[in-house]
Structures are given as structure tokens and as C-alpha cells.
Amino acid sequence: MSLKVLALGGDGIGPEVVDGALRVLEVAAGSIGLKVDLSEDLLHGAAWEKYGTFIRPETLQKAHASDALLVGAVGGPRWDHIVIDGGPEEQDGLMKLRHELDVFACVRHSRAWEALLGRTPFLPDRVRGADIIVMRELCGGAMFTKNRGVDIAPGGDRRAYDLNEYSSSEIERFARVGFEVARRRNGRIISVDKSNVFMACKLWREVVEEIGRSEFPDVELVHYFTDNAIYQMCCHPTAFDVILAENLFGDLLSDQSAAIAGSLGMLPSACLPNLPKQGPVSGPAIYEPVHCSAPDIEGQGIANPVGAILSVAIMLQYSEGEGKCAKRIEAAVEGALNAGYVTKDLGGSHTTMEMTDGVIKQFRAL
Ligand code: IPM
Ligand code: MG
Q: How much is the pLDDT for 87?
């Protein structure tokens, strides 16, 4: 058994949390006799500084030949002004990877941890037990549209636009993965859209409804308007299970869902190119914490590594079919939190290294 992993720390705190996560991967893989064939490379700003490009062709080639990519985070004010010819995927090394690998199904998991109930913005009784997966479509919509630009009218008025467009086949393939994820959990899914206003959202609702009715009649499907979904998630976080959302709404809702965990630093994600009924995902998938590069705390060793560590857990689950080992890592995180390990984003003082050591210690004891 061997898993080919490409680690791309990226920018800001990315390399720090990836270091922690790789240490956990080494221990976890060792416990199940899995050989990890690891290579590392630079992404986005880090690649720009060394090579003058956000991602090198060699890196893309390596990505295609991998089973799994572990990404830290990308971006920072130093590179925000750089504009490259071409679509949005050319402006960002991570967007390029998502586009190239066609990892359209993004699974973002957030949960209320018992040990952190006093550190979220919610009353503990209101958030206890909340456990939410936001399924975010990752390769379409306004975020990847070619229909974008700025027109300048004769009087000098500038008009900028990014068309939000979805085809039925894009919605179908994504909805299938979403329903499958819901089926493996509690058989409940909430699809969000603004079909009261937008044509692309009307099609979204129609197609999701069709896929649900014809292929997943056992999964309970409810539709919410996005604004209402966000409001309801704030008031009743335990009422949500799996949420199905297009690219932009999923970006917003997944950050919002992090409030139940107390910090965005706690959230992992899996970006999948498919999800077979059984067995591991075929082809490279990207695993990354949901948080950003946080340049303000770069290099201080205080970033929360849990989002990256849990990303390794779901890497083993989806790309290796090792759901049991994934659960053990999650339990180790829970154990470390219960033992009092808390990083600064949550009001604690444990460093990235201490938190990682805490998780590894718990993992070994399980
Ligand atoms: C995320 C991030 C990215 C996104 C940015 C950095 C382009 O916010 O992964 O959620 O919007 O997809
Ligand atoms: Mg985001």
C-alpha cells in the first residue's frame, strides 16, 4: 500500500500548519502500514518569489501524478497586485490547481467540539452537537466564469461583471456527490440557492430536485434560499447536516459554519474529482484547511494546525479508503482539546508545535 502525496505549503501560515499535518500523517500512516511517497513544492506567492510564476508546469505535472495534494494556504498583500493574462485560474496557484484537477466537489466539515463550547460565539446549549458539512461546488459559477471584465463607457463610467453561470451537467455531477455524502451520513440534505431571483439558481434547484427524486429518493431534500439558510444556521446550527451550495454561496456558508467550531482554523476540506460508491476516489484530490494564509501571524508558530491535521484525516478517508484511521485522527484531536490544548485563535496559548504534539500523543494512546 502506498499513497503518493504532494505537499504544497503555500504562503503565510500555510507551511507551518502543513508541517504539523505531515507529522501526523507520518504517524497515522505508520500505524496502518501505509507507505507515504511524499514530495514537496512551492505554490502561489512562494512560487512567485522563486520562479516568477504562481505554479510551475512541473508542479502541475507532479499534481496530476499524485493521489493526494496537501495544500496549506495561498495569498497575501505582496502578490495581490499581480495580474496575469487569462481567467481567474491564472491569478492564483490554488485556483489553477482546482481548475486543472477538476476537483469540483468540495467537502467542508465543521463541528461543535465539547471542549470548545465556551469559546464559540453561541450559547453552549444552542450549539452543542452541531455537525455540519458544506458541500461547495468548486470549479464553476461566477468564480471561474470566462464572462468577466470591465467595460468603460464613453463618459468614463466603468462597468465590471462576473457572470454566474452553471450548466445542468455541472450541477448534476456535483449534486450526485453531495447526495452520496448525505446518504453516508444521516440521509438529509439542504440545497441553497437564490432561485427567487437568479436564472442560474432556478436551474440549480430544478436539477438538484431531479437528481434527488430519480437517484436518491431515500435522502430527504429541502431547499432554502441562501439568505435564510445563513440566518437559520446562526439561530439553529444543530438543525443542519449536509448543505449543497454553488461555488460562491459555498465559500460564504463554509466560513459561516466555522463559527460552531469557534475558529476557522478548525476546518478541513477535501476537494474531490469524483466519489465512487465504494472504495477510494480515483485521481488526485486536494486536501486543505479552510482558513486563509493569515500573513499577520506568519512565522510566529502560533497558527492552529487542526484544520490541516483533519485534512490529512479525510485524505486517508477519501483517497485511501481508510475511514477508520481518519476517525482515529479526529478522536485524537478531540482528545487533545479535552486535555486542554487550545491555540491562540481560540483564546488559548498553545503553539502550532505543542498542539500537533498533543494530537500525536493522543493518537498513540488510542
Ligand atoms: C477558500 C478561499 C479561496 C476561495 C480564495 C483564497 C480564492 O476563500 O478556499 O474558501 O474563495 O475559494
Ligand atoms: Mg473562502
A: 87
CATH code, domain with 214: 3.40.50
* pTM, rounded to two decimals: 0.97
Residue 366 Cα to ligand 2 midpoint, Å, equals 33
Which regions in the chain score pLDDT beneath 70?
A: none
- Whether 5 and 64 map to the same domain: the answer is yes
Same domain, yes or no: 175 and 298: no
Q: What is the DSSP string of 237-295?
A: GGG--EEEE-HHHHHHHHHHHGGGTT-GGG-EEEEES---SSSPPSS-EEEEESS---G
pLDDT digits (tens, 9 = 90+) for 29-45: 999 999 999 999 999 99
Distance from the CA of 143 to the center of ligand 1, in angstroms?
Answer: 10
pLDDT at 1: 80
pLDDT of residue 88: 87
Ligand 1 atom nearest 254 alpha carbon: 10
Confirm or reject: Cβ of 251 under 6 Å from ligand 1.
Answer: yes
At residue 173's C-alpha, the angle toward residues 171 and 178, to 5°, is 85
110: nearest Cα among 323, 328, 271, 257: 257
338 domain residue, yes or no:
yes
